Amino acid sequence: MSKSIVILTGAGISAESGLGTFRDEGGLWAQHRIEDVATPEGFARNPKLVHDFYNARRVQSTAAEPNAGHFALVKLEADHPGEVLIVTQNVDGLHEKAGSKNVLHMHGTLHGALCHACAHRWPAPTTMSPEAPCPSCGKPVTRPDIVWFGEMPYDMERISNALAQADVFVSIGTSGEVYPAANFVTEADMFGAHTVELNLEPSSGVSRFAETHFGPATQVVPQWVAEELARAK
Ligand code: APR
């Protein structure tokens, strides 16, 4: 029986790959001010500070390896060909590195570059700098292809359509603090999907999930995928 599964992932699925989360103790937003490194205004004020922030994260994520949580989603996708969509808030590229094929980056990716002037996109070099000219228009206003606060996430129409048709919606490793992603569970539930939260601890939206499992992603994600595959037999 065909089943459409939409999976939302956040920084928590990459935590055990050694990449920091944002809002946990000592997280990225305890070390950097969002308004300085994750807004268009911060970029306009000090592009070098922004590039330095993302250059460091790009080096870290390039060196990071996917974990059992990422690999469990690859297995789920392989067993449900064409029925699994991963909508990730993460920009680290670990889902693709693990082998996931159908991945949508709603907040962009560290491994992409974008021209703030002409919107040209190209693969990001390891180190980006304010002086580097856009390969297309030549202007020195290149930025990481990351969606900043106050900007519209990518592919929202595609995401809404997927949520409207989902039989199962699974949220993994996200605090449920940032919209529109924090509202996906409500959208999916409205259209009759079974909703699941797999997280280290209850997120802000925990009460809106029909099923919850708490623990490290490397444990709760493979466990849930194994149960889902057994159900599908
Ligand atoms: N396994 C599972 N979940 C974990 C683990 C782990 N090992 N470690 C932490 N978590 C959970 C935390 O309990 C928390 O609920 O992951 C979540 C991380 O929350 P955030 O740090 O807020 O990250 P995220 O939800 O992805 O942030 C959303 O906010 O700053 C923006 O654009 C940024 O995409 C990001 C968005």
TrEMBL record:
SUPFAM superfamilies: DHS-like NAD/FAD-binding domain. Pfam families: SIR2. It catalyses: N(6)-acetyl-L-lysyl-[protein] + NAD(+) + H2O = 2''-O-acetyl-ADP-D-ribose + nicotinamide + L-lysyl-[protein]; N(6)-succinyl-L-lysyl-[protein] + NAD(+) + H2O = 2''-O-succinyl-ADP-D-ribose + nicotinamide + L-lysyl-[protein]. Keywords: Cytoplasm, Metal-binding, NAD, Transferase, Zinc. Residues 1-232 form the Deacetylase sirtuin-type domain. Its cofactor is Zn(2+). It is found in: Cytoplasm. The keyword Glycosyltransferase does not apply. InterPro entries: DHS-like_NAD/FAD-binding_dom, NAD-dep_sirtuin_deacylases, Sirtuin, Sirtuin_cat_small_dom_sf, Sirtuin_class_III, Ssirtuin_cat_dom. Substrate binds at residues 54, 57. NAD(+) binds at residues 10-29, 89-92, 173-175, 199-201, 217. Zn(2+) binds at residues 115, 118, 134, 137. The keyword Zinc applies. Binds 1 zinc ion per subunit. The active site is at residue 107. Its EC number is 2.3.1.286. 2 residues (Tyr-54 and Arg-57) present in a large hydrophobic pocket are probably involved in substrate specificity. They are important for desuccinylation activity, but dispensable for deacetylation activity. Belongs to the sirtuin family. Class III subfamily. NAD-dependent lysine deacetylase and desuccinylase that specifically removes acetyl and succinyl groups on target proteins. Modulates the activities of several proteins which are inactive in their acylated form. PANTHER family: NAD-DEPENDENT PROTEIN DEACYLASE, NAD-DEPENDENT PROTEIN DEACYLASE SIRTUIN-5, MITOCHONDRIAL-RELATED. This is NAD-dependent protein deacylase. The lineage of its organism: Bacteria, Pseudomonadati, Pseudomonadota, Alphaproteobacteria, Rhodobacterales. The gene is cobB.
